[in-house]
Design goal:
The chain is of the alpha+beta class. Helices cover 29% and strands 30% of the residues. The chain has two domains: 70 residues; 149 residues, OB fold (Dihydrolipoamide Acetyltransferase, E2P), CATH 2.40.50.180. Pfam families: CheW.
């Protein structure tokens, strides 16, 4: 069953034919109505389109207010970056995040023995250590589930006690206000993450997201750099 909220969204997202830019006064002036109305602003089609635009703006404001009310009802929240590594969806507190950056070339280091250390990469002219979170977190490599949608791999620049480090990820979903009341204890199979690294699990927008423990992640980063 489709509710009224869905119907409103469908109506709001339906494209508006800006015929005045194609065949009207701002186009090739081939519209047969121009002879009668002289200018598009006098035409009922133009007036109907303007009404739809105003309704759309009003709807977006209404939806924004509904979303704000919904977030307020969730209680205490934590700003969290949700991202994917292989098959695992993970959450990182944004206070640990410096930046989400495009992929860049990683230069391997000779004679380095840390499995988690991939090498270094250039971040605005400075060479920054690049880590594999798959190795750091003890994740099992996976194929992910992105075949049916276009995804863009990114690099996370994460704050650490020794300075920022870079970590490639397969997909970034975005920053969300995760309700702390919805977080449950991490089970053994929480995103295949070694349990010390999981502070909890939350069901968020159809996904099971494992939240990373900040202190344990910092310790693992320090070990990988040591």
């Amino acid at each position: 069953m489709i509710d009224s909220h869905t119907l409103r969204l469908d109506d709001a997202q339906a494209p508006i034919d800006d015929c005045w830019n194609r065949i009207g006064v701002h186009g090739d002036k081939s519209c047969e109505r121009l002879h009668e109305h002289i200018h598009c602003r006098n035409c009922e089609v133009h007036a109907a389109a303007a009404t739809r635009l105003l309704d759309r703006y009003a709807l977006h404001r209404e939806l924004d207010e509904e979303q704000a009310a919904e977030e307020e009802s969730l209680g205490e929240t934590r700003s969290t970056l949700v991202f994917r590594l292989g098959d695992a969806w993970l959450g990182l507190a944004t206070r640990q995040l410096v930046e989400v950056a495009p992929q860049s070339l990683i230069h391997s280091l000779p004679h380095q023995r840390s499995l988690g250390l991939l090498g270094v990469t250039n971040v605005r002219g400075a060479l920054v250590a690049c880590l594999s979170l798959v190795e750091v977190l003890g994740l099992e490599p996976g194929q992910g589930g992105a075949q049916e949608r276009r995804v863009v791999p990114r690099m996370l620049i994460v704050a650490s006690d020794d300075g920022p480090v870079v970590a490639p990820v397969d997909e970034v979903d975005g920053i969300h206000a995760i309700p702390l009341g919805a977080v449950v204890e991490a089970g053994r199979g929480a995103a295949q993450v070694a349990r010390p690294f999981a502070s909890g699990v939350v069901q968020w927008r159809g996904r099971s997201v494992t939240l990373l423990d900040e202190s344990m992640l910092q310790q693992a980063i320090a070990r990988s750099l040591g």
